[in-house]
């Protein structure tokens, strides 16, 4: 007998007290979330904290979509990576995927911690004590913490356009194929209705998108 959506939801609900405990421990610089990946368009089912400004019903992030696309059921937890919010906050993030009794990935518990102030202090110390020029370039994951699925989709499209390096108006058939394959690798097609949206962006038919993917 298959595990039902309600049974999976009960498993996810067990993580809400854990989210409360983490938030109570680390305070207002922290945000803890529980996501239900059975609906990536509106996966956020619990949140403590306001760091990313999201509300219940917000979608999953680009990082999660890409991880699910690349690794499926074998996806591993992502611990201690950094991202930047649209407001410029530097956020340290850890994600632990939640599985049911059938080892299916049904959600995740996420912890986001604002380390902006710590990073600034660390940079001041580095600058003061350093006698050699260092490369201070940021190396952060591309994650937008969108409030709705349209923002996620727009972010994926814009990122793919930058990486393809050709404007929509100037794209050849080969460029469009690379563009669509780029989106596929990012997990964009896990979003319901993505084929129609991408077809509209490229001014082609859904069947053409399927052909590009093949």
Would you write up a description of this structure?
The chain has 214 residues and is of the alpha+beta class. It folds into 2 domains: 5-119, Beta-Lactamase, CATH 3.30.450; 149-213. It contains 8 helices and 5 strands. The protein has helices spanning 5-13, 16-26, 62-71, 116-129, 149-164, 173-185, 194-202, 206-213, and strands spanning 30-36, 44-48, 78-84, 90-99, 105-114. The chain has a 5-stranded antiparallel beta sheet with strand order 2-1-5-4-3, with helices on one face. Helix 5 packs across helix 6 and helix 7 crosses helix 8 (206-213). The model is unreliable at 132-138 (pLDDT under 50). InterPro entries: DauR-like (IPR039446), DauR-like_HTH (IPR039445), YheO (IPR013559). This is Transcriptional regulator. It holds the Pfam family PAS_6. It comes from Sporosarcina soli. Residues 12-123 form the YheO-like domain.
Task: Characterize this entry briefly.
With 214 residues, the chain is α+β, with helices and mostly antiparallel strands. The chain has eight helices and five strands; from the N terminus they run H-H-E-E-H-E-E-E-H-H-H-H-H. The protein has a five-stranded antiparallel beta sheet, covered by helices on one side.
